[in-house]
Recover the amino acids of this structure.
């Protein structure tokens, strides 16, 4: 019973490098979300998707891009990483019949 | 707009003490309310939820009541254990999006 799986769990990037974080869910959920968690700031929404092929901006979208080509996957891309993007990133999903969101284990990203 | 304000921590309690973590919200419409818990190095797990006014969510000895008149959803537990040490997040969902508080760190000492 995997739920929401994030890959990778840890990553160190140099400033200017690019990378993609993968989120996969096996619950056939329509909604998927990417958050970043920073000390003292809680979780802030980066982008979200309400279904395959759709994406929308959240509170802090700058510097990130996303894609939802398949219903089960939601990718978060950093085209040119900056130290300000050092954070813990969480993916979550929710089915249309669910009230709550289900979270992955997180990806700890450090940009040096 | 939508927002969640929760009591700042950290909170340190002795085992078997009573716990209250305050949470108030601002929302348009009729949001659902949640408490999530995060253990070190892990993702957020749903602790309890309430979907309409006067609903009480409960789980593992924790309770919270959806109070529309005071726009609050305070978390309580009568007797905390060392294993309850974690970060607790209050959240609301309005339509498609979730909004989270900044989290309250709880440490329970034996």
């Amino acid at each position: 019973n995997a739920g929401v799986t994030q890959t990778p769990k840890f990553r160190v990037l140099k400033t200017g490098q690019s990378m993609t974080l993968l989120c996969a869910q096996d619950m056939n959920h329509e909604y998927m979300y990417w958050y970043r968690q920073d000390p003292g700031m809680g979780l802030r929404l980066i982008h979200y998707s309400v279904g395959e092929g759709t994406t929308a901006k959240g509170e802090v979208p700058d510097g990130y891009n996303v894609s939802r080509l398949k219903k089960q996957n939601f990718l978060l891309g950093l085209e040119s990483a900056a130290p300000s993007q050092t954070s813990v990133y969480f993916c979550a999903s929710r089915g249309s019949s669910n009230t709550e969101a289900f979270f992955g284990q997180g990806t700890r990203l450090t940009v040096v | 707009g939508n927002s969640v304000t929760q009591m700042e921590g950290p909170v340190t309690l002795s085992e078997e003490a009573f716990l209250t973590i305050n949470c108030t919200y601002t929302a348009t419409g009729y949001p659902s309310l949640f408490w999530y818990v995060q253990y070190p190095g892990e993702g957020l797990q749903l602790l309890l939820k309430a979907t309409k006014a006067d609903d009480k969510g409960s789980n593992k000895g924790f309770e919270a009541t959806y109070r529309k008149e005071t726009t609050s959803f305070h978390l309580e537990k009568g007797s905390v254990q060392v294993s309850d040490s974690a970060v607790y997040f209050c959240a609301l969902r309005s339509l498609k999006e979730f909004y989270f508080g900044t989290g309250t760190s709880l440490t329970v000492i034996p």
